[in-house]
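subagent[fold] <- orchestrator: predict structure for attached chain, return tokens only, no commentary.
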Amino acid sequence: MTAYFTVIAVLLLVTLLAGLGRVLRGPSAADRMLSAQLFGTAGVGVLVLLSVADGRGALLDVALVLALLAPLAVIVFTRLPGGER
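subagent[fold] -> orchestrator:
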């Protein structure tokens, strides 16, 4: 079962690499912001899977903090005046 979780974590890391391409190319700021949300979501998934696979409870705490902080980036992005939307 541990190998299964590790494979899924690697696949999530591959999606993060695809999102990194969108951040670098991205035609608009909104595309870049959605990719940042992908980083938050996939990052939480990777941390939870690695926590279960390795049996480290501290990674779950880090995943929880990341899950709580990721939506704040969207709130700040939508509240900033003069941004490209």
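orchestrator: received. Logging for downstream: The longest helix spans residues 29-54. The mean pLDDT is 85.
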